[in-house]
Amino acid sequence: MLNIVIFGAPGSGKGTQSERIVAKYGINHISTGEVLRAEIKAGTELGLIAKGYIDQGQLLPDELIIDILASTLDSFKESKGVIFDGFPRTIAQAEALKQMLAERGQEVSIMLDLDVPEDELMTRLIKRGQETGRADDNEETIKKRLVVYHSQTSPLIDWYKNDGKYQHINGLGTMEGIFAEIAEAVDKI
Ligand code: AMP
Asked: What is the CATH number of the domain that holds 88?
């Protein structure tokens, strides 16, 4: 089983690189952000709750997102592994993921930290907002999301270093160049 956590600040390229990883390694993909955006689009109760947090650039409560993750994980049959994109975002989520995988006789194989300078993140996200119309890609909400990343999510770097799973990836450069560094790290597992 190849269980990859793809990590990084908003705009670091997690979604883009996840697509390439899925294509090369044939594993399932869970993006908690995409699950939530689909719920919003479908107008569900969960979508309504999620929208309140997303529009403010805040994280959803851990219990809620952990439940969503567990049911998505259970929906995969005969999986070769999973890429976790946008999850975990807090230490509590990382601990829950570790436990969930352990209950299935598995573990995280590697955590890939896509490292991108802050000014580049802002430029990429503003551009994505203009191109896709994604509601939380506006300057005010991006700033809030970056504050949340630094306070609640970046502590996971040390958490995964302690867990022996951490791999730094230079997230600046061409999509192909970044993916080559990822594939080299994954192939070494
Ligand atoms: P993303 O598409 O990963 O950038 O996520 C968009 C938004 O969805 C985030 O800013 C959060 O409001 C929410 N979200 C996505 N994943 C999580 C998570 N693991 N924990 C809490 N909130 C999340």
From this structure: 3.40.50.300
In this predicted model, what pLDDT tens digit does every residue of 24-39 receive, in sequence order?
999 999 999 999 999 9
Active site residue 145: yes
Measured by CA distance, the residue closest to atom 23 of ligand 1 is 59
> How would residue 90 be classed by pLDDT, with cut points 50, 70 and 90?
very high
Residue 77 pLDDT > 90, yes or no? no
User: Is 14 annotated in the active site?
Assistant: yes
- The CA distance from 115 to 133, in Å, is 25
Q: Is 49 helix (H, G, I), strand (E, B) or coil?
A: helix
Q: What is the domain extent for residue 33?
A: 2-181
For residue 186, report the distance from its CA to the centre of ligand 1, in Å. 25
Catalytic residue check, 124: no
Q: Which two tokens stand for residue 150?
A: 């630094």
